[in-house]
Amino acid sequence: MKLSEASEILDDRIDEFMAIVQAHHQLEDSAFGNAAVQSTSEIVAVGRIASEDRSGKLNASSLVLETSRRTGAGFRVPLQVDALGGYEFFPGKIVAVRGTNASGDFFAVSEVLQIPLLPPSASSQAELEAFAAKVASASSSDGDVDMDGESATRPLNIMVAAGPYTTDTALDFSPFHALLDQARETCADSLILLGPFVDIEHPLVRSGDFDLPPEYPCEPDHATLTDLFKAHFSRPLQLLAKELPTISIILVPSVRDAVAKHVAYPQSRWDKKELGLPKQAQCVTNPVTLSLNETLVGISSMDTLEMIRSNEVVGGTARQENVMTRLCSQMIEQRSFLPVFPPPLPRPVGIAAGSEEGEAQPEWVPMGAMLDTSYMKLGDWLNVRPDLLITPSILTPFAKVCAHFSFILN
Question: Most buried in the list 143, 211, 289, 293, measured by CB within 10 Å?
Answer without folding.
Answer: 289
